[in-house]
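Our preliminary data section would be incomplete without showing what the modeling component actually yields. Below, a chain of 202 amino acids is followed by its predicted structure, encoded as tokens that our downstream tools consume directly.
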Amino acid sequence: MTFILGLTGGIGSGKSAASHWFETQGISVVDADVVAREVVSKGQVALTQIQQRFGDWVMLDNGELDRRALRDLIFKDSTARHDLEQITHPAIRNAIIQQLAAAQSPYVILVSPLLFETEQHQLTQRTLLIDATEALQVQRASQRDQQNIEQIHRIIASQMSREQKQQQADDIVLNDGELTHLYAHLAPLHQHYLTLARAKCP
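Predicted structure:
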């Protein structure tokens, strides 16, 4: 059985930069955000269920999901958010399990911004939090995504607090500098995970 590392962090924390670095070391990465888009793509069962629950207005003319319209709804309506999660979370979890099982690298990483909230951490043997102050998160996300500040604060507020993530994570890297600073912290962790993986699967 493959050793699975859960990698998480809030918006603008640098988890994508971290996961990309691990990929350059030859480690397979399963991205929960990518999987979440795949399971609601055109022709998928979950997309049909979403259309049945919310109506045709959540669909674009080309038969794909209107992600922006649905995202705006679930930010305002907790019942709608719950209903959407009841449809998508099982589908996402099943797809993640399949992709993790197919990985061929010494260990595999599950990247998920909601690793703890969705209990996806239960699929992993160890967790790594890429941490950053809220001020840094807002600064980076606004520069990267061109989102307005209010929108970014809403996303941060909808996720588990920084303190709660720190309490749950096995390993924490504070990403408060340049990328070279981040990579310098990841390198020894990578060696540690290789050791753990060898011990699990000698």
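The chain has two domains: 1-27+106-202, 32-104. The chain has a mean pLDDT of 91. Preliminary results of this kind motivate Aim 1 of the renewal.
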